[in-house]
Amino acid sequence: MNVKRYYTWNNCLNQQFGTKVFKVPIDAGFSCPNRDGKVAFGGCTFCSASGSGDTIVAPCKPLPLQFQKAVLAMHKKWPDVKQYIVYFQNFTNTYASVKILQKRYKQVISLPGVVGLSIGTRPDCLSLEVIEYLAELNKKLYLWIELGLQTTFDSTSKLINRAHSYQTYLTAVRDLRKHNICVCTHLINGLPGETQEMMLENVRRTLLDSDIQGIKLHLLHLIKKTAILHDYHAGWLKLMDKKTYIDTIIKQLELIPENIVIHRLTGDAPRDLLIGPMWSLKKWEVLNAIDDELIKRNTWQGKYAVK
Length: 307
What we know:
Layout: H1 9-17, E1 22-26, H2 63-75, E2 84-88, H3 98-109, E3 114-121, H4 128-140, E4 142-150, H5 154-159, H6 166-177, E5 182-189, H7 196-209, E6 214-219, E7 222-223, H8 229-233, H9 242-255, E8 261-264, E9 274-276, H10 283-296
Parallel strand pairs: 1-2, 2-3, 3-4, 4-5, 5-6, 6-8
Antiparallel strand pairs: 7-9
Helix pairs in contact: 7-9, 9-10
């Protein structure tokens, strides 16, 4: 697949564009239906006040300026990159009318070097009208829809206030794939009450039940001023240690067919907001440890791929 033992997002983009491509996160000013009362209040219990957009460079600026500032920051490390995918990251980026979506997406589509969009959203915010608009976009540029599923267990989903069912997710993927739109599913490891076997089952079900092209595996970050702190202090939530997390990721990778793009194997959290696990702040150490353990076990993505 590449020098790593799994099919990375960077490798996918290199195959698509023949060069390194930046993924540029922005805050487009959307909300969520489980925050404003449409389906629930308070949002997901793990989600911060920024809607999981704590690392966005300039969230309050106009979208073109957000993009520019983020690109300038990235160019300090990779000065030669000239192509970009704009990532509508935090909150629910299809939670609006098509007219509003068109207005916000168009602000960045025409910016210099932009070759595609990656749109983070919820499966219950994809009406047929919205999907038809996304299908039009899919014919014009490189497009991924990133679906926040987090867990396939409705009992866990209720506990974390997702306010949608697993079946809602399956329907959304089916409707997107009718138009050949690429789907990346987000799953979180370490949710309250979920065992390692449940985390592996989340991957099995997602792959067996839905036609997805990518997967993003997160570690649950315990963030200040989030509702999930109640579960932590009550003893219902145990933070994963580094060894268990790496073991879980490797076993999940073994289940994932080698053609599925691995968009992420851990996440980012701001140091000043993170309560734990603190080892997750050393992201590259975690990723290197995963690589080392894959070699040590002589294993790889898809070794025991689900059929």
